[in-house]
Design a protein that fits this description.
single chain, about 100 residues, mainly alpha, Cytochrome Bc1 Complex, Chain D, domain 2, 5 helices, binds heme C
Length: about 100
């Protein structure tokens, strides 16, 4: 009982820390979403494929696309994938720097 009482708060702190992680990251989402897209989405194809879908895919559709790109071989962490989907879904059709 005594031991258990010590473990539970430690667990709660860990869960809170993990939970706070992604939202802390989204504070600097704009810059890193852009950096991730221009840096990691150009390895296999050009940004024109991404540009063509701006204003077409919503956040859920972008999340699904990024998940498929990961199966294609894209290397990103979960938080980075979420940031990419959030950033792309906020861009209007034809928006730079994704579109020329
Ligand atoms: C490892 C290689 C690779 C990387 C890296 C990659 N892609 Fe792709 N992408 C592909 C391939 C292969 C296709 C065509 C087959 C398909 O659609 O899955 C494609 C197609 C697409 C398409 C057109 C199809 C559709 O669903 O509209 C979009 C948009 C796209 N990629 C976005 C991205 C984004 C955004 C990133 C970066 C987060 C990215 N890709 C990184 C391989 C890659």
């Amino acid at each position: 009982m005594h031991r258990f009482a010590c473990i539970v708060p430690a667990c709660a702190v860990l869960v809170l820390a993990l939970w706070a992680g992604p939202s802390a990251e989204s504070a600097r989402g704009a810059a890193s979403g852009q950096a991730l897209v221009t840096g990691r989405c150009t390895g296999c194809h050009g940004l024109e494929r991404v540009c063509a879908m701006l204003g077409v895919k919503d956040r859920g559709a972008w999340a699904a696309t990024v998940a498929r790109m990961r199966r294609n071989g894209l290397q990103v962490r979960d938080a980075e994938a979420a940031e990419v989907a959030a950033w792309l879904s906020g861009l209007a059709r034809g928006a730079g720097p994704v579109c020329p």
